[in-house]
Amino acid sequence: METVAGVEPLAFVGVDWASEQHAVCVLGVDGRNRDAFAIAHSKDGFAKLIRRLGGLGSPRQVPVAIERPDGRLVDALLEAGHAVVPVSPNAIKSWRESEVLSGAKDDPGDAEVIAEYLRLRAHKLTVLAPFRDDTRALRAVVRARDDLVEQRVAANNQLEACLDAFWPGAKAVFADVCREIALAFLERYPTPASARSLGEKRMAAFLAKHGYSGRRPAAELLERLRAAPDGIAEGAETEARRDAVLGYARVIRALNTSIKNLDRSVSAHLGEHPDGEIFASLPRSGRINAAQMLAEWGDCREAYDCPDAVAALAGATPVTKKSGKHEAVHFRWACNKRFRKAITTFADNSRHASPWAADVYQRAIARGCDHPHAVRVLARAWIRVIWRCWTDRKPYNATNHAAAVRLAGLANNNQKKRLAA
Predict the structure, then answer these.
(1) Which residue of 293, 385, 391, 410 is surrounded by the most CB atoms within 10 Å?
(2) Pairwise pLDDT comparison (410 vs 417), residue with the higher score
(3) pLDDT value, residue 98
(4) What is d(CA 371, CA 349) in angstroms, rounded to the nearest whole number?
């Protein structure tokens, strides 16, 4: 009998997750249906599930498969002692289509398919390794910040589109309309008519009032405004566009404030995390990027058996497809997208501070890789280095990085030869 988490199972449970009600199917080790029921997404529903599964035997011997890796239902199962196995919705969809030839689909049937998938493939599936509380806290605040940044990008694009159609000059004055000085300008001068009498002295006074830190003089900023195409100065559309501009500006200002507050929270949680120093010690990682990497990497040393497992999760390794004489290497789409963004952002930044990282990147470019591919190559190399720091629980130190030391030695020798010549 195959084992799950090192324990011989007594039954296999499949849960078809939904927002209000979850379908549950229990299969015996022989594949026969032992139980099927539904629970509400509530405190009483979770208690009912734990109680009925408890009647099957020790929770450690009753693994549960579900199509999501987190949430309060998953937490309840983990707290009760069950081995939780997150399964891919795409894998379940393909499995169901191969098993249910008629194409019939309902929630109880999906729960049975999930349980059967777990029973037959338990030896190839990975049991969920829960994060510690401080890691979950860091992940929550990091992901909340990232979501707000995405919302700000969307609001920024909407504001720019509105200005392009209504008043291009207001968009051209400052480099980024999300900056506080640009938002203040739009709130003070939301229409072309309101800026008609704006001169160099008034512009200079506005910049001084709002603490403008740019290096462009008032005359140059005013020239940008005047050189842009004329805006819509009059009519009902002008009033409507004015209200839209002010609405977008208020939304972006609120998002800016929330993101700044979350920045402080992210930095605080990173400083309190036992592994925070490891990721913060990486060259040009920064507090936010270091927290993003740690939040997705996690703290469970037993979750990965090698650095390649981390690289696969982060989408830093390609996928090879072979069939007969055909062999092709493709981009890895199935991965943790947040992790990939965090690790590639770090890798791209690191090459400006680490000669070793710059060398890895340049050698990838020389082999014909484009920039994104070269960054992923560098990210995979960094994952091996971070893995060693993470498993040893020690911050990164370039003097202990053998490849970086060798590269520095070669550079010194070449410099001495040039000086001697």
Answers:
(1) 293
(2) 410
(3) 76
(4) 13
